[in-house]
Amino acid sequence: MKKNTSNFSMIVREFKQDKGATFFLFLLLALIFFIYIYAAFLNTKQVMHVDIINSYGHPGKGGHLLGTDQGGRDVLKYLVLGARNSLDIGLAVTLIVEVIGIVFGLVAGYYGGLVDNIMMRFLDFMMLLPMLMLVIVIVSIIPNYSMLDFILVVSAFLWVGTARLIRSKTLAEAHKEYVYAAVTSGSSAWKIMLTDILPNISSLIIVDLILSLTSNIGIEVGLSFLGFGLPESVPSLGLMIGLAQDPDVMIGAPWVWMPASLLILLLCVGISYVGNVIRRAFDARQRLG
Amino acid sequence: MWKIILRRVLLMIPELVLLSIVIFLIAKLMPGDPFTGMITPQTSPAQIEALRVKAGVYDPWYLQYWHWIVRMVHGDLGMSYQFKTPVGSLILSRMGNTIWLHLLTLILSYSLAIPLGLIAGRYENSRLDKGIMIYTFVAYAIPSFVFYLLGVWLFGYKLRWFPTSGSVSVDVTGTLGYILSRLDHMILPACLMAVLSVTAVVQYLRSEVIDNKNQDYVKTARAKGVPEKTIFTHHIFRNSLLPIAAFLGYSITGLLGGSIFIEQIFNYPGMGLLFMNSILNRDYSVITALVLLYGTMTLIGSLLSDIILSLVDPRVRIE
């Protein structure tokens, strides 16, 4: 517990040194807070209700702050729900990916030798697969897929990077004296991995968690943009940005796709900026303060 | 040298076989069979059944796989349901477009990344270095397609500097006009991709230069009285640039992997757009061939990187 508090104070110190990062952190927190609170008061069915008469309403017209899209839906409300879904999916994928990656990496790195060799061959093979294409193919095969299906399909491909990272770090840790001491005193392999090695690589995991959150949100939005992410009935930032593929919308109704694009830019840059500051805080050589 | 390449190629074979098995099994999951395009209302169910038996639809999967892979190796990738042409020649006709676009991107990307990386490394921790690091960081963090979309909106539609779709104008005359029109269509997507793809090279180069700064040979050069500028241009930069060559192999496949978004947004008729169209039209023989092609190219890319690395850095060869 003592170690955690000192980690935490290191992060606080790093944020104090970097004004830009502090600004981003509070901006992000406020934005995410706003999205979740506002989304809690919205009814998805009501927001998704199509009202053709009001289609492509200019911003400000008829009480729609950011205008309406082709189905007459309020862009702001759709944006909030879409952002919440993107964040939810990003979080879910990140958690699944981290758990699989950590277990895989710990086992491969701890045992080493033949076990590691076989597991690494498998990882190499996974890296080979054209992920984006296969996800699109699988999504198009699954009949009426849901948000959960999507999360599982994407996670099935994305854990590889995390596993690689954890494995290389575990490999280095497994030959340190505290591990030998634990082995000598008779701790079981699982106990050593989870209670000795895992806390020692926790800073790495936290950083990886935040940075992969960025890319996972980006992947969901990207796939939805192409039309192979979330189903049409679920609000998504990607679907909204995808409307810009029609030149008429791109030029004639920028309020439909521009806010979603800027929001996703802000979220991705902001989260990875904060993640990088935390990484710096954990790395004594790069620390500012 | 040849021994290493040979060993590396032999190691590649099981991966290639496994890749083809995975893709074959996924292809099996796709609805429809090779006759979907041939069946007309006049075809009787018995005829279809006979066709299926003849094609081995009811064989065990490993036999089917064997027949499939033998056909693939012979260059028979099947027929495109959407275009009614052999898949092989269809992909070849689109491949040129993708390769040209990515070649241009690669040239632009490296001519931007190499100077930036060297400058950032030489003037470590200066304002300039910090600016470059922020740029690479943002380029890495933002989702590429949003950037492309904003780029096409600003430079294509608002400022009207560049065409926004296709690979060549309809009304061009003469060879020169054709080439210029092609280039005109490629320049915006290539620039947008290049601007986003510098991160790895810049950061790697920067840390190489910083590492090299404290090497003994640099101290020797300094002690001899070699001017600071010459130390960098003649000693450090040369040594730092070598490992970058190895990035090239990965860059080739990495850039191709991103081609789906750029080709979709610019409606550029390359392999990425072909893939998207085939998915929308459920043209499964084309999809299977493209996925297999991309997987194989990734494999060849990493092979190339290893070979280049062992060529430029003899220390790797000892292992």
Automatic annotation (TrEMBL), chain B:
Keywords, comma-separated and alphabetical: Cell membrane, Membrane, Transmembrane, Transmembrane helix, Transport
Where is the secretion signal located?
none
Membrane topology, as annotated:
Multi-pass membrane protein
Respond yes or no to whether keyword Transmembrane helix is given for this record: yes
According to the entry, every stretch annotated as the ABC transmembrane type-1 domain falls at 95-305
Q: Which Pfam families does UniProt cross-reference here?
A: BPD_transp_1, BPD_transp_1_N
In which domain of life is the source organism classified?
Answer: Bacteria
Q: Which spans are transmembrane here?
A: 9-27, 99-120, 132-155, 186-205, 241-266, 286-312
Alphabetized InterPro entries for the sequence: BPD_transp_1_N, MetI-like, MetI-like_sf
Location in the cell:
Cell membrane
Family (UniProt): Belongs to the binding-protein-dependent transport system permease family.
Question: How is this protein named in the record?
Answer: Nickel ABC transporter, permease subunit NikB, nikB
Instruction: Record the organism.
Output: Ligilactobacillus animalis
